[in-house]
C-alpha cells in the first residue's frame, strides 16, 4: 500500500445554523469516545460513493438530519495523521484526507445526535474562534486552514 493510500478518504462539514449569515454560529459536537474532544461531523467515503453523497449520508448518520444547503466547498483535499492511540483502531490507515464543506441547516432541520450508532454526547453552536480552541490538537491545523479559507472568502 503506498503512503498516499494510507490516508482514509473522508468528508467533513462545517455546519452553520439556520440564522446564517446574520449569525455565524458553527456546529461543534463532543465525541462520546474521546472525553473532552469536540469536532465537526465527518466520516469515511465509501468505495464508489461520490463525495457529495457521503456528505449527506454522514450528516444523517451523525446528526440525524441531512436537511442542509451546501454554501461552499474547500477547494482541495486536506489531511492529518492520527495520534497513535487512534491509529491503532484505524489500521491500515495512518490518517485521513478530507474534503470540507460549509453547509447551512434548513429552518425545519432537527438535529438529533441520539442516532442509530451515536458518535456524539453533546453539541453546541460556537464562534469560529471557539471552534479552534475546543478542537482536538491533531486536527487544529486543518481546522485553522479551512476556517481561515472560509473567513477570507467572506463566508465566516
Secondary-structure topology with pairs:
Blueprint: E1 7-16, E2 26-31, E3 38-39, E4 42-44, H1 51-63, E5 68-73, E6 78-81, H2 84-87, E7 95-105, E8 120-126, H3 128-134, H4 140-152
Parallel strand pairs: 1-7
Antiparallel strand pairs: 1-4, 2-3, 2-8, 5-7, 6-7
Helix pairs in contact: 3-4
Q: What does this protein look like?
A:
There is one protein chain. This protein has helices at 51-63, 84-87, 128-134, 140-152; strands spanning 7-16, 26-31, 38-39, 42-44, 68-73, 78-81, 95-105, 120-126. The chain is α+β, with helices and mostly antiparallel strands. 24% of the residues lie in helices and 31% in strands. The radius of gyration is 15 Å and the shape is globular. Strands 1, 4, 5, 6 and 7 form a 5-stranded mixed β-sheet that branches. A 3-stranded antiparallel β-sheet has the order 3-2-8. The chain is built from 4 helices and 8 strands.
Amino acid at each position: 500500500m503506498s503512503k498516499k493510500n494510507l490516508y482514509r478518504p473522508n468528508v467533513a462539514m462545517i455546519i452553520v445554523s439556520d440564522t446564517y449569515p446574520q449569525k455565524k454560529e458553527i456546529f461543534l459536537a463532543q465525541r462520546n469516545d474521546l472525553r473532552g474532544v469536540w469536532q465537526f461531523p465527518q466520516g469515511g467515503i465509501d468505495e464508489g460513493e461520490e463525495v457529495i453523497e457521503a456528505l449527506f449520508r454522514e450528516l444523517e448518520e451523525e446528526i440525524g438530519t441531512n436537511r442542509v444547503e451546501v454554501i461552499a466547498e474547500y477547494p482541495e483535499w486536506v489531511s492529518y495523521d492520527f495520534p497513535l492511540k487512534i491509529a491503532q483502531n484505524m489500521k491500515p490507515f495512518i490518517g485521513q484526507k478530507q474534503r470540507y464543506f460549509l453547509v447551512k441547516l434548513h429552518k425545519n432541520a432537527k438535529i438529533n445526535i441520539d442516532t442509530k450508532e451515536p458518535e456524539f454526547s453533546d453539541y453546541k453552536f460556537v464562534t469560529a474562534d471557539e471552534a479552534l480552541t475546543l478542537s482536538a490538537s491533531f486536527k487544529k491545523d486543518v481546522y485553522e486552514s479551512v476556517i481561515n479559507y472560509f473567513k477570507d472568502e467572506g463566508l465566516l
